[in-house]
Amino acid sequence: MSPTRAEPDVSFLLDHSSHVLRTRMAAALAEIGLTARMHCVLVHALEEERTQIQLAEIGDMDKTTMVVTVDALEAAGLAERKPSATDRRARVIAVTEKGAEVAKQSQRIVDGVHKAVLDAVPNEDREVFLRVMNGLVSGHLATPVETSQPARRARQSNK
Amino acid sequence: MSPTRAEPDVSFLLDHSSHVLRTRMAAALAEIGLTARMHCVLVHALEEERTQIQLAEIGDMDKTTMVVTVDALEAAGLAERKPSATDRRARVIAVTEKGAEVAKQSQRIVDGVHKAVLDAVPNEDREVFLRVMNGLVSGHLATPVETSQPARRARQSNK
DNA sequence: TATTGTTATACTCTATAACTATA
DNA sequence: TATAGTTATAGAGTATAACAATA
User: Fold this and answer.
1) Which tens digits make up the pLDDT trace of A18-45?
2) Which pLDDT tens digit goes with each residue over A37-81?
3) CB-based contact, B104 to chain A, within 8 Å
4) B132: domain CATH number?
5) Which keywords fit this entry according to its UniProt record (chains A, B) (predicted)?
6) Chain A hits for B19, Cβ within 8 Å
7) Hey, how many other C-beta atoms are within 10 angstroms of the C-beta on B124?
């Protein structure tokens, strides 16, 4: 029996590939003035009437991060905050006509970047690759480990 | 021919899986008081005599980040800065006896976390998965896109 | 002149706290 | 009392600038 070998460096493979893909996506979307977050919000706000909180959950961002993202979309004239018809606390994100057009463009861009990755995978391996990744993401690598201490210490309350 | 469908969300697959794996690795290494960076430096400093700059390149970190990492290793008694025999500007990172033991432990931890991931991949798919990931990392997703504007604006010089 | 390593700190990102309006 | 959204800002991470020592 051959000696024990180090396991393949799965961390490097996933970290590096996701990092490079992220820079590529950011660069591609930047050409039409969007960030990945703006694209995400735009697309999901188009699907149906959604409030900021709902969109924040979908995009896995904090509600305060959501505020910044919506500010950017409003400043670019791509979306508007509208009062919710059913909850006067909440604001629905309405995509403008221009926003809808940009969303179509950005979706094409995103699809293009993803297609380029998949085209780089040999035909006969593509299905297995996607199956394995989907399996990991919904199974063994579905849930982040809870860090015993939060990402940041609770802020000093100085009242 | 069926209508065009959105491409699989490769960004999500890679981002999510790498993020979860990263939290898991951080949690596992934290149990012996290491960060991933400390582990990385420890292991590569053990392989052969290396200076901070060389170790920084291997771990893809800034030299100032390297300073912090080596500070942590020294504080934990796992490594020491030694003057280089050939370049009086440079410092070689010497792993202590305790550091070497910890490195063995941390390597076992890292291998264990990686093995758990691969064990979650069906036997018959594992080889293809690794082949594809290695292919992407050394091919289509080898090099990050150069951001036209740097990650951070140049700092104001106030001399 | 260029490079190693250091210190100090500015910049970005993100999340906590506190608040207002409403449920 | 709890929740949606906002503002202000603290905390963490990281990289730039400047510097001393040396090449």
Assistant:
1) 999 999 999 999 999 999 999 999 999 9
2) 999 999 999 999 999 999 999 999 999 999 999 999 999 999 999
3) no
4) 1.10.10.10
5) DNA-binding
6) 18, 144
7) 8
